[in-house]
Specification:
Elements lengths: L3 E6 L6 H10 L4 E3 H9 L6 H7 L4 E2 L2 E2 L1 H10 L3 H23 L4 E5 L14 E6 L2 H9 L6 H10 L3 H7 L2 E4 L3 H20 L1
Parallel strand pairs: 1-5, 1-6, 2-5, 6-7
Antiparallel strand pairs: 3-4
Helix pairs in contact: 1-9, 2-5
Length: 197
């Protein structure tokens, strides 16, 4: 029986990384899309050759330099779509390998742009993390080097929180670690009951 695939997502500053860590603490394997991209961009990573073919200046010392890649994206309106066309299939393959190798009955797939890329269709359920806008803003602006302009730019590229909540199977408000931990434990139990019913 293949594992139950729970897609975890949420906008910046909503508490997704903390929630992913709580699932991990509960003993579930968690696949992280951002970490997968880092592996693909590292020396020997599967995306290095593809990025080198698109924009050789972005590859330094056998690895993709994310700062140079961002500079290219900022200066060329076609860059992002071209990068995504080669990187998204590699990320999907990395995710499929993770699921195939999982020995748990449930896997958590942490995908920031889950709905934006249509990956919810490959999930058995989705969980959106949310928080009030003022709390989200305070969390993000507390990050080192983050500015109002950067925050606005990131938000403009993400699906609005209300739309994510409307499309989600499950929603958790990340007001405290304790409340999220209680929710995660209850959700794991709920999924297991459903699978064994």
């Amino acid at each position: 029986m293949s594992p139950f695939r729970l897609g975890l997502t949420g906008s910046i500053g909503m508490g997704k990384s903390t929630t992913a860590a709580i699932f991990s603490d509960a003993g579930l394997p968690v696949w992280d899309a951002d970490a997968a991209v880092h592996r693909l961009y590292a020396p020997g990573g599967a995306a290095v050759t593809a990025i080198d073919a698109l924009h050789p200046r972005a590859v330094v010392g056998g690895a993709v330099d994310r700062t140079l890649l961002k500079a290219w994206i900022a200066s060329d309106a076609t860059a992002l779509a071209r990068i995504e066309a080669v990187v998204h299939p590699l990320v999907a393959a990395d995710r499929a390998t993770f699921i195939d190798r999982a020995t748990s009955d449930i896997v958590v797939l942490d995908i920031p742009l889950l709905f934006e890329i249509g990956a919810e269709q490959q999930m058995d359920a989705t969980l959106v993390v949310t928080a009030p806008p003022a709390l989200q803003r305070a969390r993000v602006l507390a990050r080192p080097g983050m500015t109002e302009a950067q925050f606005a730019s990131i938000l403009s590229r993400q699906m609005p929180d209300a739309e994510k909540r409307a499309r989600a199977t499950h929603i958790v408000e990340t007001l405290s670690i304790a409340s999220v931990r209680a929710y995660v434990d209850a959700l794991i139990a709920h999924i297991r009951e459903g699978r064994h019913a």
